[in-house]
Amino acid sequence: MQQEKVWFVTGGSSGFGRAFTEYALSRQYAVVAAARNLAKLSDLAGSHPDDLLVVRMDVNDRHQIEEAVRQAEQRFGRIDVLINNAGYGIVGAVEETPEEELRAQMETNFFGAVAVTRAFLPMFRRQRNGAIVNISSMGGQLSVAGFGAYSASKFALEGISEALAQEMKPFGVKVLIVEPGQFRTDLAGSAMRYMPEIDAYRETAGGTRNFARSMHGTQEGDPLKAARAIDAALRNENTPLRLQLGEDAVRAIRSHAETLLGELAVWEDPAKNTQF
Fold first, then answer.
1. What is the CATH number of domain 6-249?
2. Which of 17, 153, 200, 254 could hold 109 in an S-S bridge, CB 3.0 to 4.6 Å?
C-alpha cells in the first residue's frame, strides 16, 4: 500500500528531527530519517520496518547526500516533504567567535541545508508537487548579543528560502520557513558550542551564554506539537511562507517587526530624500 505522504527529515535522530519522525510515523506517513548516528534510531527502525528508512547522512558530505536521495527514491519512489532540520548553535560574541567556528556554523546550518535542498529540486520539479520545510528560528528574524553566528546562518537560510519559494511556485512546490522559539530539544545542550569568553562581553554576550545554559531541559515548547503545527500548515491551501512556533517566538517577532516599522516611519523622510 502506498503511503499518504513521504517525509525526508535531516538530523532525524534527536530533538526536532526525532519528533518530526515520530509524528509522521504516527500519521502513517513514510519517513526517511537521515542522521549521522543511526544507532539512535534503531528502536524506531525496528518497530516500523515498512514505513521508516534510516540513512547515514552528514549534511556537510555531498556524496552522502546524493546517496541518501538515491536510497529514498529507490525505496519510496518520491518525497513529498523535505524537512531541513540538521544544525547546531553557537554562543559567543562576534569577537569571541573564531573565524573557523563562524565558517563551520555557516557550512552546516546554511550550506548543508542548501546542498540537501538542491539535491531534491529535480525530483520536486518532476513531481510538480511537494514541500520544502527549512527549520530556522526566531533568531532568523532577529538577533541578540551572543547569538550573532547562529542568527547569521538562519538569516541566510531565510533569505535563500524566500527566493526559492518564488522559484518553485510554478512547479506546485511549497516552501515553508519555520521559526521556533524555545522548544525542549538538544539545541541548548549537546547541539550548542560555547565560545571562549572575553571578560569585556560579560554583560552582553555573557547574559545570553548564561541563559542558553540554564534553559536546557526546561523549555516550554513541545517538539511533537511543533510537528503537528507544521503538518497543519502544509496541508492548508494557504500555507504561509513563515510559521512562528511558540508564544515567545510570536511575541518577540511581533515586537521586532513593530520596532522596524517604527524606525522606518521616523526615518522615512531622510531615507526618501536621497535621489539625484
1. 3.40.50.720
2. 153
How far is it, in rounded angstroms, from Cα 110 to Cα 158?
Answer: 9
Grid cell listed for 111: 550550506
Per-residue pLDDT tens for 95-152?
999 999 999 999 999 999 999 999 999 999 999 999 999 999 999 999 999 999 999 9
Inter-CA distances, 238 with 158, 162, 175, 230, 235, Å: 19, 16, 12, 13, 9
- The chain-wide mean pLDDT, for the chain, equals 94
Residue 161 bears catalytic tag: no
- Are 138 and 181 a contacting pair, CB within 8 Å? yes
DSSP conformational letter for 196: P
89 DSSP assignment? E
Q: Are 152 and 106 in contact (CB under 8 A)?
A: yes
Catalytic residue among 13, 14, 136, 143: 136
Q: Tell me whether strands 192-194 and 89-91 are parallel, antiparallel or unpaired.
A: parallel
pLDDT at residue 189 tops 90: no
Helix (H) or strand (E) segment spanning residue 43: helix 42-47
Identify the active-site residue in 5, 14, 23, 150.
150
194 is a catalytic site residue? no
**pLDDT at position 29, please?**
97
Q: Which of 154, 161, 174, 201 is catalytic?
A: 154
- The C-alpha angle with vertex 138 and arms to 133 and 144, in degrees rounded to 5, equals 145
Q: According to the model, what pLDDT value does residue 80 have? A: 98
The amino acid at 207: G
Alpha carbon 57 to its chain's center = 16
Distances (CA, A) of 111 to 104, 163, 188: 10, 15, 22
Phi-psi region of 29 (alpha: psi -120 to 50; beta: other; left: phi over 0): beta
Instruction: Note whether 103 and 212 are within 8 A (CB).
Output: no
